[in-house]
Amino acid sequence: MTRSDPPIDPTAPEATAPFGYREVPAADKAGLVRQVFDAVAVRYDLMNDLMSLGVHRLWKDRMVATLAPRAGAAIIDVAGGTGDIAFRIHDRTQGSAHVTICDINPTMLSVGQDRAVDRGRLRGLDWAAGDAEALPFPDRRFDAYTIAFGLRNVTNIDRALAEARRVLKPGGRFLCLEFSHVTLPLLGRLYDAYSATMLPTLGGLVAGDRESYRYLHESIRRHPPQDELAAMMTAAGLAQVTWRDMSGGIVALHSGWRI
């Protein structure tokens, strides 16, 4: 999906949505994505370490440092089922912020809850099954909204961004960490070759699921570039929209505010 694509209405009879390089009925995409993450949930964090050579940890650290969560803040982390962002917020605030982890996939949430118990994180975290395009929370509920490596998997990015603004309090901050478009030509060619071959290969060897990781690679390539996502955020009503490239644009951290 790019900004030139029309908004997707999954209830329209002929509506389609990108699922990797394929176009599928829009009403089917959420279920297909759920199947992917059901398949990879148990080894998702190990695969992140292998695929990024551990650099995903630095990207996530930078995201939470940029957020600078304060004690007592109410924060929602969307598509954060395994808890990576929530745990960093929890550690940074010594458990005094209240983080709601919302994910459409119950299997991912289960993995995150088990990790929380294993690490003794028993307060300050709530776990909720929910769709980023129709969050089960009232208006103006949260001080901050984070989403890391999840926005590209939703059916309708415009709708998910509108929901993010809806649940933010005035003055609340939106942060999105997502794979983006590499800005250095040589690095871009190397990264494309690496991700096209190594993601499915590692998926097959480590997670026993080559096809799910082929989809994850393809979904990265279909995600809007930095400036287009910024324009979508502005159209959704977020203000002071900026982004910061990391690792030459392999990922980008987008920021916006509900004014």
How many beta-strand elements?
9
Q: What is the terminal-to-terminal distance?
A: 27 Å
CATH topology: Rossmann fold
Instruction: Please give the CATH class.
Output: Alpha Beta
Number of helices, counting only DSSP H or I runs of 4 residues or more: 9
**Tally of distinct domains:** 1
Helix content: 40-55%
In angstroms, what is the radius of gyration? Answer: 17 Å
The arrangement of helices and strands along the chain is EEHHHEHEHEEHEHHHEE
Beta-strand portion reads: 15-25%
Per CATH, the architecture is 3-Layer(aba) Sandwich
Trace the largest sheet across and list its strands. Answer: 5-4-3-6-7-9-8
The overall pLDDT average reads 87
Q: What's the story with the biggest beta sheet?
A: 7 strands, mixed
Q: Please identify the structural class as seen in this structure.
A: alpha/beta
| The CATH superfamily title | Vaccinia Virus protein VP39
- What is the 3D form? globular
Unreliable stretches (pLDDT < 50, length at least 5) are 1-6
Description of the structure:
The longest helix is centred in the C-terminal third of the chain and has 23 residues, at 185-207. The protein has one domain (16-184, 212-257): 3-Layer(aba) Sandwich (Rossmann fold). Helix content is 45%, strand content 22%. It starts with 15 loop residues before the first strand and ends with a strand. Strand 8 and strand 9 form a beta hairpin. The protein is globular, with a radius of gyration of 17 Å. The strands form 2 sheets. A 7-stranded mixed sheet has the order 5-4-3-6-7-9-8, sandwiched between helices. Strands 1-2 form a two-stranded antiparallel ribbon. It is an alpha/beta fold. Helix 2 packs antiparallel against helix 7, helix 3 packs across helix 4 and helix 7 runs antiparallel to helix 8 (210-222). It has helices at residues 26-40, 44-52, 55-67, 84-92, 106-118, 157-167, 185-207, 210-222, 226-235; strands spanning 16-19, 22-25, 74-78, 98-103, 125-129, 142-148, 168-179, 239-246, 251-257. Mean pLDDT is 87; it is low at 1-6.
